[in-house]
């Protein structure tokens, strides 16, 4: 099984994003203003579509990471606000394109933009937001930050294409799966965290620490998200339990259950994932098999593993409120599932 | 009718892109190498999809403009090759997304990427190429060039969204239409031409001249493209005659015919464009009505008008081979239709 982890860890004391929210409250106010102004356009449909998604109530974890990471190194300018907004726009563009690619009807319990305005508008408004994200980065004027964020844009798209390749494919290994989530999710967390020290002029060592923190937090975040899809609290989840199953997504809980299953169980998974037998009875059976093989628990265990790496990445840094808030975020991400 | 133009102009002597091709041949060799390497990825589907489009035989006019514009001001580095490749990637990304948005089956007589690999891959590989385009711009290190090209990326997407708004809408005015093509087509021509003098460190006046040349060349190019759709030579055109009609696109030949038509003719246009009555008989009738009202000739006339503005934009510049090649390109674009 490779990775040995303690899955009995339980919640840590500070499994909360409250400290992160408090530290970034003033800056996030400026991010939110910038979001509204930069999502504006004389072309009416653009702010309509953009605001639908922007107002749909994500936690805005990624821009908060950028802000806190810049504060941590004493940054006093306003470049971090623009970079944080760029990060959120890149994320929003990805969501708009994802919904088209996945043919999703709902996101966070609301109808997706593509269901209201069509696939066309979702593709194009995503492109617009990506363009605006780059304009803001250019405004900041840091070629290093541009380098990190433009590379992330390519890698995210590569990860999404990789995901198409593993869709409905039960031969997908855990390594394949990790490569996908590293690219599609962790790359943006990583870039969001790294541009903080960059804009603040911190050392290469500090940049590397924040980059590693972001990457591993992103991996943990996505693993927990994938576990939640088979039994989370719908409110926390922002999507319906079983969405991944119905779309035939091969996430870690499925990979582990399939690989650990009997020949007869593997037939079940094939009919479900490869041949779309994903009704409610099938979903119930899938959840029972995951319980039998400890697949959810071990997915959470893997997430804890990456959470520990993220924690150690920050260990050498001085104990600041920002560092503590970032450590709390790790626990918060993992505790969503408990 | 507002714009008075000479539509009898006929072909000019040098209505050719041969001089442009000859001047940029060596640099285009390097652009082509860079295209192949930067469209590469370990994710197999990415180079497959990208190369399908890249090898489909466009004239690569946009990157040639960037190269010639940099040469014109004595540029000796290799930044123009990267910027030209970025411009071509931005264009390719737009085509991939356009085919999804328009639900097109064919481009330049070949099946579109979305017909072979699906809409999903077309959206995501487009995103990847856009990310790679920005990475190359960052490599060049010119914040001014980044500013121009990132702004163009936003404006192009805005233009595409605007186009959704005017689709199948016969109330579209010529001004509305010009706003759409200025954003969706002319913005990239303009940016492609302007980043040449930028990377070469030319004056603001020279930048403005090239920007104006690019904008007006792009407008002329798109107007001719729209005229060709109702009677061009399919080889030149790279698409089938009548594609715009069948998709209900409201281009200038339609706008002029509708506005100049009788009440009964306007009913025909409504049934065709708004209610999808676009069989071959309808296409024939549309072409007859365009002939009756001189709509194609006047669309070409409008293109000539913008071609003249592009010509005058370059007038103050010293007479170099690059300038002459750019002037020839104006005539080439317009003469495609004769």
Spatial strand sequence of the major β-sheet of chain A: 1-2
CATH superfamily of chain A: Farnesyl Diphosphate Synthase
Radius of gyration of chain A in whole Å, from Cα?
A: 20 Å
Q: Total number of helical segments of chain A?
A: 15
Cα(first) to Cα(last) distance of chain A is 23 Å
Number of strands of chain A: 2
Order of helices and strands of chain A: HHHHEEHHHHHHHHHHH
Q: Give the oligomer, counting copies of the same chain as homo and different chains as hetero.
A: homodimer
Mean pLDDT across every amino acid position of chain A? 90
Helix percent band of chain A:
over 70%
User: Could you list the spans of chain A in which at least 5 consecutive residues all have pLDDT below 50?
Assistant: 1-10
Shape of chain A: globular
Given this structure, which CATH class of chain A is correct? Mainly Alpha
Biggest sheet details of chain A: 2 strands, antiparallel
Q: What do we call the CATH topology of chain A?
A: Farnesyl Diphosphate Synthase
Task: List the domain count of chain A as a whole number.
Answer: 1
How would you portray this structure in words?
By secondary structure, chain A is an all-alpha fold. The first copy, chain A, has one domain: Farnesyl Diphosphate Synthase. Chain A is 73% helix and 1% strand. Chain A is built from 15 helices and two strands. A two-stranded antiparallel ribbon of chain A has the order 1-2. In chain A, a hairpin with a 2-residue loop joins strand 1 and strand 2. In chain A, helix 11 packs across helix 14. The longest helix of chain A has 28 residues. The N terminus of chain A is likely disordered. The interface between A and B is large, with 42 and 42 residues.
